Model the fold of this input.
Amino acid sequence: MKKQVPHESGSALWFEFLLIYVTGQMGSSGKNQIYLVTGGCGFLGKNLVQMLLKEEPGLAEVRVFDLHLDESMRHLDRVTLIQGDISNLEDVKAAMKGAHLVIHTASLVDVWGRVSPEKITAVNVQGTQNVIEACVTQGTQYLIYTSSMEVVGPNARGDPFFRGNEDTKYEVVHTEPYPVSKAKAERLVIEANGRAVEGGKQLVTCALRPTGIYGEHHPLMKQFYEKGLSTKKCLIRAVPASTEHGRVYVGNVSWMHLLVARKIQESPSAVSGQVYFCYDDSPYKSYEDFNMEFLGSCGFRMLGSRPLLPSFLLRFMALFNAFLQWLLKPLCNYAPILNPYTLTVVRTTFTVQTSKAKEHFGYQPLYSWEESRARTVKWLQEIDAQRDAGK
Done:
């Protein structure tokens, strides 16, 4: 006699299908997918790639798109290096083909006048537009943009921004090419949210605004170290210690990108079209005092508990540098660290909160301040030891 198989009701079958679908959707992030990281050989990009490889073992491939490739990354498993120009649409389209998600970190960061405004616009604005168009034509549904706190400020007047969030009212007044370009690029990304992409889906976008990023292998930190050697490791205090800035460790910036990459696929509506400040538990301090947290381990000393240079003298030096830069432009690229814009930035309190990122996708710093500091100090001490050994 043939055994009877119990007949499943339509509702039971539907529930089973729904359960399989939901489970599959929740586990889809990073499973056998291709991620594209533009600017993946830069300071942040390289750190982000390493974190993706470590924390997302299900990724099939991490594509690294950059104008200048870091050949040391070629041996990394699941990494494909692609050389190309972000300001060239065809280069971007070729790199984007087949990618499920793109993290767009490629950017020209210049507040000293080392790069022409036209070049900054071509990379930061046109490059971002190219990424968006490539997403649309290649069917890449998810775009995460690495913006900057300088989209908000400090503004040209030096108005303070104290423990602000994404909704804090603040008059944005930009005149310099870099913050202007980042603001335009971020707006392009947010306005592109919801655009139809090839295949019938909609583009989902969001942007992260890191404060000043620090960490091992940061080129600007190394530059500060080398500059301090010329003054026998003695630094003169130039801004009040009461000035506060929010700085964020590179590992925590990468971690936030990874978390939002998961969330944008698992629950697109939670983050679509949103912007988020990116900060961690690093102490709020002036740029000078914060840098001394690391340089002090190499024997550097800060002279003065108060600014040793009058405010008017610093202002004069900044304006004089700007005049020299204009005067020497036909002959050479004179681009000192001190200019009117950088002086405004370092003298203006600008601190942010990340409660929105915590609420929307569960962001908590992966690295504590103590660990972030220890990692950066160890790197600088190694540089210092190598210099001493070379004497």
Summary: The CA atoms of residues 40 and 64 lie 5 Å apart. The mean pLDDT is 90. The longest helix spans residues 117-138. Residues 19-214+246-283+350-368 form a domain with the Rossmann fold fold (CATH 3.40.50.720).
